[in-house]
Amino acid sequence: MNRTNYIFIDYENVQETDLDRIAGKPVKVVLVLGAHHKNLPVPLVQRLLKYAGQVALVITGRSGKNALDLILAQHIGEAKKGDPHGYFHILSKDKDFDALIGHLNDNDTLAARRAAFSEIPVLMNNAERVEFIIARFKPKQFTRASKRKTLESQIQALFGKALSPSELNDTIRGLVAAKALEITSEGVVAYNI
């Protein structure tokens, strides 16, 4: 299944919008703007136009404590209803969203809060993917696969099953090149970290 990744940007909190990362990816971006966002920078508008098929604006005209947060949460609920198998990302440094993320995860929904586009697994380049996986190997956050097929499944799970076969192979080659692991001709995986 090619899962769609929905990225909801809390523009009051995070103005970094590296939209070039979404090109050719199964991604939809929702930029949530409040009453104070009357003008957008020209480079952002150019990117919005470039990726118009993948980007939507929510212009609330509302202000007040947590106004954008609540509106953003409502839009996630609508998107989840339309695509229950999607992966929902909130781009914000606001830790208040962690309760919503926890609730979504508790109800078998893939969701995460990120502080930057470069932290969203499906948008990572190969070097970032390798670094991301190695960081998880070090504290042993998941059971280490002993076979290549299982490793491939674990990597796909980490990235919301959004990696193409070539991206998956590039990631594994990157892990081998970084000497994080070795894979025998029989497909047995040995870890060096």
Describe this structure in words.
Helix 4 (about 125-135) packs across helix 6. The chain is an alpha/beta fold and about 190 residues long. Helix content is about 35%, strand content about 20%. It has six helices and seven strands; from the N terminus they run ββαβαβαβαααββ. The protein starts with a strand and ends with a strand. The chain is elongated, with a radius of gyration of 18 Å. The protein has two domains: about 5-125, 3-Layer(aba) Sandwich (Rossmann fold); about 125-190, Arc Repressor Mutant, subunit A (Orthogonal Bundle). The strands form two sheets. A five-stranded parallel β-sheet has the order 3-2-1-4-5, covered by helices on one side. Strands 6-7 form a two-stranded antiparallel sheet.
Q: What fold name goes in the CATH topology slot of the largest domain? A: Rossmann fold
Overall number of domains: 2
Strand-residue proportion: 15-25%
Radius of gyration from the alpha-carbon trace, in angstroms: 18 Å
Major beta sheet, strand line-up: 3-2-1-4-5
Question: Which CATH class of the largest domain applies here?
Answer: Alpha Beta
* Number of extended strands: 7
* Structural class estimated from helices and strands: alpha/beta
Major pleated sheet = 5 strands, parallel
Poorly predicted spans? none
Overall pLDDT level: 88
Q: Tell me the series of helices and strands, N- to C-terminal.
A: EEHEHEHEHHHEE
Q: What overall form do the CA principal axes indicate?
A: elongated
Fraction in helix: 25-40%
Query: What is the CATH architecture term of the largest domain?
Result: 3-Layer(aba) Sandwich
Number of helices: 6
N-end to C-end Cα span: 32 Å
